[in-house]
Amino acid sequence: MKPTLLVLAAGMGSRYGGLKQMDGLGPNGETIIDYSIYDAVAAGFGKVVYIVREYFKEQMEASVRQKYANVKCIDGTPLEFVFVTQELTKIPAGNVVNPEREKPWGTAHAVLMAREVIHEPFAVINGDDYYGKDSFRILGDWLRAHENKSGAYSIVGFELENTLSESGTVSRGICHYDENQRLTGVVEHLNIAKEADGKVYGDNSVNGETHIELDGKALCSMNMWGFTPDYFDKSALLFGAFLQENGQTLKKEYYIPYAVDCIVKSGEGCCDVLSTPSHWFGVTYKEDRPGVVAKFAKLVELGVYPSPLYQ
Q1: Distance between CA atoms of 292 and 25, rounded to whole angstroms?
Q2: Over residues 84-106, mean pLDDT
Q3: Distance CA 10, CA 106 (A)
Q4: HSE toward the beta carbon, residue 73, CA cutoff 13 A
Q5: pLDDT computed for residue 46 by the predictor
Q6: pLDDT exceeds 60 at position 54
Q7: Main-chain dihedrals φ then ψ at residue 188, nearest 5 degrees
Q8: Structural domain contains residue 309
Q9: Cα–Cα distances in Å, from 9 out to 4, 126, 157, 172?
Q10: Number of domains in the chain
Q11: Does position 194 have pLDDT exceeding 60, yes or no?
Q12: How far is CA 89 from each of CA 20, 149, 240, 255, 299, rounded to the nearest angstrom?
């Protein structure tokens, strides 16, 4: 079984100032998604599903199909690509929403857009985050081990100190789990940074504590998930309930952690917390770009990736 990679690439990039999903950051113009797909193929994935917006779907699909025309899976078969769109109007029939709303419905809604094209265990990643080879290998192995199972989900946890920014503070959801490494909750922390004493500090958004010392080895979520395909049906039901309560709001969104938390607490599924040694990096603002370019150049210099990445 070859798992599928679902790439969340529908973000409009308003803070970044453009379509960061298509920004060339590698030595030969490679995007972050290019590196993620390269690592996923090496980890045994066989299909890539892009979640995009309609207004740039044609441009992105043409670029992707040309770029990856010669890419083969580890069994020698061509890598498969599917494109689906996330739009504000793609909601279950019978729901009435605020006509003034412009903001999409969030990451869990985006995943639902792939319900008709994914029938095997699958991973979910952000299109603008670099996760590293080890992360894809670990998650690929987990997905293959859970073929033909249901209610089995996972999250790849990154050590907090491996996700910090060199240019400012960050917000991270720190994973809490039981003795079986099963997720019990994700607690959002704000204003996280390593300070002059070498320790990591941040604010707990739940209990209001500020400038508390955090464990640099604590596992945090960078929105890298693994799901068995039954997740779609469970999440669709939750989304219907979410719209009943929040359909008239202008900004509230249906997020993956919320959907997973509801499923886990209902007893209909469980979520394994997987640990990766990889270092995360990504782009949120244009100021992040030079640092990311330098990191990819270093990875190429060290021989982690060929250059150009694709021939």
Answers
A1: 7
A2: 82
A3: 10
A4: 16
A5: 96
A6: yes
A7: -75, 130
A8: no
A9: 15, 7, 21, 20
A10: 1
A11: yes
A12: 24, 32, 13, 17, 41
